[in-house]
Specification:
7 strands; mainly beta; 1 helix; three-stranded antiparallel sheet; four-stranded antiparallel sheet
C-alpha cells in the first residue's frame, strides 16, 4: 500500500490512543482522640480526584477521600466519630497504547470502577490507632490525534437510497417460518 497512491487517504482524527486499569488496596492509619474499645462502623466519603498524563505511557491520579470511623471508648460507655482526610497518588501504566499518535495535546479520561471502600477496620494491638484497609479501582483512557488510512472508491460513486433493493419479494415472504420463535414448552 503506497500512501502516494490515489486510492488511499490519510485522515487525522481524535481517538483513544491509550488505556489502562489499576486496582489498589491501601491501609490508612487513623488517630482518634480517645483510646478505642471497639469499632462500631467505618465508611469512606467525599472522594475527589484529578488525572493527568505524566509520561507517554503513565497516567497519574491524585485524589483524596474522608475516612469516618465510629468507635466506642471508655470501656464501651461512650462513642465518637473520627474523620481524617486521606490523600493518595496512583500511577497507572497504559497497557494498550498507540505508538503512532502524534502531537502533545492529549486528553485524559479517568473513570472510577470501584469507589474507595472500607474492607476492614481494626484497632491496633498496641496504642490508640485504628487501621483501615481500603480499596479503589480506576480505568483511564488517553485521547489524542492519530492517523487513519482509508481506501477511496476510484469511481467516486455516490449511492442513493434508491440504489439499494430493500424490497421483500413474495417468495422471501413465503419462506419465513412463522413458528421459529415458538415457545419451547409447546414442543
Amino acid at each position: 500500500m503506497s500512501f502516494l497512491d490515489q486510492e488511499y487517504r490519510e485522515i487525522i482524527t481524535k481517538a483513544v490512543i491509550g488505556k489502562g486499569r489499576k486496582f489498589k488496596q491501601d491501609t490508612d492509619t487513623i488517630t482518634p482522640a480517645h483510646r478505642p474499645s471497639s469499632i462500631l462502623g467505618c465508611w469512606i466519603i467525599n472522594h475527589h480526584y484529578h488525572a493527568k498524563l505524566v509520561k507517554k505511557d503513565v497516567v497519574e491520579i491524585r485524589g483524596s477521600y474522608d475516612v469516618n470511623v465510629w468507635y466506642a471508648y471508655n470501656d464501651n460507655t461512650k462513642t465518637e466519630v473520627v474523620t481524617e482526610r486521606v490523600e493518595y497518588t496512583d500511577h497507572i501504566k497504559l497497557t494498550i497504547r498507540d505508538k503512532h499518535h502524534f502531537g502533545e495535546d492529549c486528553e485524559v479520561l479517568a473513570k472510577v470502577i470501584q469507589q474507595p471502600n472500607c474492607l476492614e477496620c481494626n484497632i491496633e494491638k498496641h496504642g490508640q490507632k485504628i487501621k483501615v484497609d481500603a480499596e479503589r479501582e480506576f480505568l483511564v483512557e488517553v485521547l489524542g490525534e492519530t492517523k487513519v488510512i482509508v481506501k477511496v472508491d476510484p469511481s467516486g460513486k455516490v449511492y442513493n437510497d434508491d440504489d439499494w433493493d430493500l424490497e421483500i419479494t413474495d417468495d422471501e415472504l413465503d419462506s419465513i417460518d412463522p413458528d421459529f420463535l415458538a415457545d419451547e414448552k409447546e414442543e
